[in-house]
Amino acid sequence: MDFRKLPTILAILLLSVLIVLPVLSADTTNVTLASDNPTNVTLTPDNSTNVTLTSDNRTLTMTSDNLERDVATGHYNSAEELLVKGDYANAITLYDQALASNTTMLKKTDAILYLYRDEAYAQIQLGNYSDAIATSDAGLVLYPSDAMLWNNKGFALSLLGKTQDALTAYDKSVSFDGNYTTAYINRGNVLSQMGRYTEAIAAYSRANETDPFNLAAADGLAAAKKSESESTGNMIILLVIVLIAAAGVVVWYVKFRKPANPAPEEKKDKTKKK
Question: Which of 62, 104, 183, 255 could form a disulfide with 151 if both were Cys (CB 3.0 to 4.6 A apart)?
């Protein structure tokens, strides 16, 4: 071995170490997010925005913003589970937390549409009708032609006694989905409340066409027909009463009303001068 070359070799080794160490240090700022436990993520102290997600041998580069999206999705999924269990109050809390987070991912997957639908439903179940209307309106800003959002809004309005506004919402709902059975039934219910039985019958009949075995549609149709029949009968009775009363007035006027006494003629002046 030529010892004269030893200093040169050592210098090269030292230089290599100095170059490699900074590269290794930079790689430690990345965080690996395991696919089997995506919620346990810790960012490095320097708040690195690069996170590596490994799943099925594929690598997806995400930013810290994506982590917040996952938070929103997590809240949404948990809320859906509570909704099924009937825990409406806590479900609403989680829906609101999801909306307060970054909703970009929810919007990409249209999960936010179901969030607005389901939160309004939960609010209706708790009697928070005004909140349900506000939630439906917020959803309609993003999805103005969604039949279910219009139906939920209409249902909340009807429970507040705003029947005309509810009818308008139901009309919107069926205009966007002509086969939406529930909206037709709700529309029929409101029309029945308003005494518009003929239109209610048409709504229930359409609901029966879209779902021939729907008991609510069948019951509503039968009730509307009965009410229309009773209403028609009452109108006939009222008309007969009015006609009889009118005839009585005429007979009384002709037979019993005495004519006014004529005014006495002025006496002639018999003392007229000839």
Answer: 183
